[in-house]
Amino acid sequence: MLRPERWGTPGSLVPAVATGLLLWSTFYSISKPNPRRHVTIPLAAAFTIIAALNARNFSSNDVVNSIFARFVIIYFSHCLFIFGFVSSSELEDERKRWLITRSMRPRGAHSTVIDDEQLPKNMPGCSDYVFSYKFLLNPLCFGTKWEVPLREDRGDGGGSLANFAHKSRNITSASHLKQTSFPSKTSDKTLQKPKSRTMFILWRLFTLFCRYLALCIYFDRDLFFWMPGGIGENRDDYVLGGNHFFFKSLPCLLVGRCSNGAHMHAQAVRATVLRLHWVLIQVVPDYLTLSSYHDILAIIGVAIGVDSPSEWPPMYGSIIEAYTVRRFWSSFWHLLIYRSFSTFSRSILSILGVSRRHPISRYTHNILVFFLSGIMHEIVPWLLTPDQCMKCGCHHQIWRFVLQVFGMMAEGAVQFVWSKLERWLFGPGVVQVRLRIFLLHTV
């Protein structure tokens, strides 16, 4: 939604300058070996708070402001993980790995092998900030020991990136390049024949154009606000006679006949479509908008030569893989916050004394991760539309995310029961035994 009346250039400079200072302070902190980089956390937190509190003034478009606020929060959480949970020795190991893998020149067909004594202690000039860029603007931690495992290769670039990251994160010294897995003339197809930069840019431009058309259609008022009987929501969409209307009428909707007549059936249909509408507005705009920004950054990074095509896999997976709640989050949705929030959750469980081997540890960990994600999504509307949140409330986001875990538990229980039933009905030898019994009775 556009709000030009509350936007002005002086107001937009505050969040923009605060974000620039946030990026500069964190980039500078790890651009060179710095054992006292932890002192950057309070400074980065101050810049994050200033940028987030003024996010509603960043532009006249609430969608852009929402994405900006989430970017600032996600970036700070990733920096908190790097500065607070990664030791100096681990960070320097990653710096050394990056220097070595950079010398491999994965863009070409040949690699350059260097000795440990030839390895530069530090890279002069802007190269220091290239390492900061690769490390801090990398929430999935690709190519590092903290890499977020993907359930699938996400389209173009995913396979080669996973392959290259798996190799690079296992390098601890330049001498490892002389082993059979890293010969000077590598036989790995992903390193020998990387995807053409030109084809990568052209393909991303095409997908960006398609997403732009989809966004135009999605935000078209004549289409987006279409609902049976009009978009105007009424009390019957939620409650009827003090009872939850939708769940009360759901059985008769499934059967096709309602005891209260055609009116109740029409209301049940409307309530169902309304909830499908809510699902779409929670998924479609984020998918199209975030993917578009991701494509723009990928095109810029590859075009100026800072990144290779293999470093920019698609942000989202295939929607075909999202046939369960668990697979929706693990195989389809983006995992930008998983590494940092997962680390925070493990730390909280460790403080509470919950062992990772405990049976409830897995689901408690998932609840904490989704709870933190819900808090982040809860903060953004409070920052952008505080008056509306004071009037209507914005607390539903936390519940929406936490309930995902209970959905996973429910489908896990159903899958467990079904596997037992399937084994009992159609397990090895069961069909043959039942066939013989049937033949004996018929004969």
Automatic annotation (TrEMBL):
Domain of life where this protein originates: Eukaryota
Q: What are the protein's UniProt keywords? A: Membrane, Transferase, Transmembrane, Transmembrane helix
Which residue numbers delimit the Wax synthase domain? 312-387
- Please give the biological process terms from Gene Ontology that the record holds: lipid metabolic process
Task: Print the organism lineage.
Answer: Eukaryota, Fungi, Dikarya, Ascomycota, Pezizomycotina
Report the family membership: Belongs to the wax synthase family.
Q: Which organism is it from?
A: Clonostachys solani
User: How would you describe this protein's topology in the membrane?
Assistant: Multi-pass membrane protein
Q: Transmembrane segments in this chain: where?
A: 12-31, 67-87, 201-220
List the subcellular locations: Membrane
Taken from the UniProt entry, a GO cellular component term is:
membrane
Task: Give any GO molecular function from the UniProt entry.
Answer: O-acyltransferase activity
Q: What is this protein called?
A: Wax synthase domain-containing protein
